[in-house]
Design brief:
Length: 503
């Protein structure tokens, strides 16, 4: 069976209407082999604008549905995802090149956020605030916001959609989703799964969730529409630089989850065995294509040689290849461009005096149109050049440090501020790292890697990562609007701050 046939079968099983399969001009290829696996119709600007109008009309009704009832729709979505887990996980592996365990893990992340959002639908708590005036009461309540525009990236083509959609729906919003142009098939599958949940739910307004398979121009229509009060965009910092100001210009709100240049500090008091497992998973897993992937290693001078030797050994043995045809741990890069960017970063590092181990293309004969690489360990003389930037590939830059204060300075001296980790058994060091003068990232871990966050925490980061928070904790507040209410139940009209205004 060709991959294209398998994909068509998966899509049918996942409930995607035949009219949407292999019918358009936007060609979809799998990074596993480079072969074409389908084609989809591209949405025009007019299509996107019409979708926004429909989503707005749906919102006007949905906002009046009690939140726990809205949670019921997300519970059904979670049920449908459980049923679809194997097929959707497999489709993620084919469309993005993830190993099966990570494809399934991504769907599990969707199920987890649905469970979280269902509980949340009964916990959208406001406040009661003590009023300074007699016979007055103050409250703070949270209301639905409107159409939520979700822009997602290729590397987590389904989980990031679900973080946003599950929260947006329980918060009373409708959704228009623009996925990456590289991953329209998993987006069609998610939409079919969502549609099934909607069908099982008695009173969901039509058009509550809509998929816009648009390019940049169609995406811009979403970003610029005054009908879309919230844009939640996940992707590169370059994308965020385009999206953020355009949303701000119309006083819209954005949740930006952008690039990461995540580091692990390996202290002289680290447990090197678990550190090795954590570092290799974070740096090499998902072929270095997570926004949380570890890209920098700051190792204490006393353990640097021993630890880097261990990493090199692991890198030499880690299996690279088509994860659906073998049990490899490292699949392909998403495309040729990603490969070229990787090679450019390695060349730039070499020019600055780095020693590069690995990084070369493999399996070229077997897969001339796919880009498999050995993960690269790059020993840098100092943190400079490409080490300061995010390259979406399995490159781990390593430098030495001699005291933690310097390591923290180096750690924080990059543009991005997403995820971070320290490996130490010394409580003073770990607390320093987690403290106010420690890691400046939105995620700071101890003795685990930088990637693989659970959905229960707020997910996102600072500086060039954009400042937005998705997923758990109180991220839901970003999807709602807040109103402060003061209610006078007395027969007088006292003014705040003791102001008198008698006439
Ligand atoms: C991303 O790469 O955009 O923490 C998301 C992680 C995953 C999510 C990554 N749970 O690595």
């Amino acid at each position: 069976m060709t991959m294209k046939t398998e994909v068509a079968e998966l899509l049918v099983r996942l409930g995607v209407p035949a009219s949407q399969i292999d019918t358009g001009t936007l060609k979809v290829t799998t990074p596993l082999t480079g072969e074409e696996i389908g084609s989809v119709k591209k949405a025009t600007v007019e299509d996107v604008n019409a979708q926004i109008e429909t989503a707005h009309a749906a919102f006007l009704q949905w906002r009046l549905v009690p939140a726990p009832r809205r949670g019921e729709l997300v519970r059904l979505l979670g049920e449908e995802l459980r049923k679809a887990k194997d097929d959707l996980g497999r489709l993620v592996s084919i469309e993005v090149g993830k190993i099966p365990s990570e494809g399934l893990g991504e769907v599990q992340e969707m199920i987890d956020i649905c469970d979280f959002a269902v509980g949340l639908s009964r916990q959208l708590y406001g406040l009661t605030i003590a009023s300074e005036r007699p016979g007055h009461k103050m409250t703070e309540v949270w209301h639905p916001l409107g159409v939520t525009g979700v822009i997602s990236a290729f590397n987590f083509p389904v989980a990031v959609w679900s973080w946003n959609t599950a929260l947006a729906l329980v918060c009373g919003n409708s959704v228009v989703w623009k996925p990456s142009e590289k991953t329209p098939l998993t987006a069609l599958a998610c939409t079919a799964i969502m549609d099934r949940a909607v069908e099982r739910f008695a009173d969901a307004p039509a058009g509550l969730h809509q998929l816009a398979l648009a390019d940049r121009v169609g995406g811009a229509a979403l970003v610029e529409s005054p009908r879309v009060p919230l844009i939640s965009a996940t992707g590169s910092t370059a994308m965020g630089r385009q999206v953020g100001p355009r949303v701000a210009e119309r006083f819209g709100r954005s949740i930006l989850e952008l690039g990461g240049n995540n580091a692990g500090i390996v202290s002289e008091q680290a447990d090197l065995d678990i550190t090795l497992r954590a570092v290799v998973f974070s740096a090499v897993g998902t072929t270095g294509q997570r926004c949380t992937s570890m890209r920098r290693l700051l190792a204490h001078d006393t353990v640097y040689d021993e630890f880097v030797a261990k990493v090199k050994k692991a890198y030499a043995t880690v299996t690279v290849g088509n994860p659906l045809a073998s049990n490899s741990l490292v699949g392909p890069l998403i495309d040729k461009f990603a490969y070229e960017q990787m090679q450019k970063a390695l060349a730039d590092a070499r020019a600055l005096g780095a020693t590069v181990t690995g990084g070369e293309r493999v399996l070229e004969d077997e897969y001339p149109d796919a880009y498999y690489v050995r993960p690269a360990l790059v020993e840098m003389p100092e943190q400079t050049g490409p080490m300061l930037e995010e390259t979406f590939a399995p490159i781990l830059y390593a430098v030495r440090y001699t005291n933690l204060a310097d390591a923290l300075d180096t750690h924080n001296a990059v543009g991005a501020g997403l995820s971070s980790a320290i490996f130490t058994l010394n409580m003073r060091e770990s607390e320093q790292f987690l403290g106010a003068a420690g890691s400046d990232c939105g995620i700071a871990n101890v003795n685990i890697g930088t990637s693989g966050a659970e959905i229960g925490g707020a997910f996102g980061g600072e500086k060039e990562t954009g400042g937005g928070r998705e997923s758990g904790s109180d991220s839901w507040k970003g999807y709602m609007r807040r109103a402060t209410n003061t209610i006078n139940y007395s027969t007088e009209l006292p003014l705040a701050q003791g102001v008198s205004f008698d006439f």
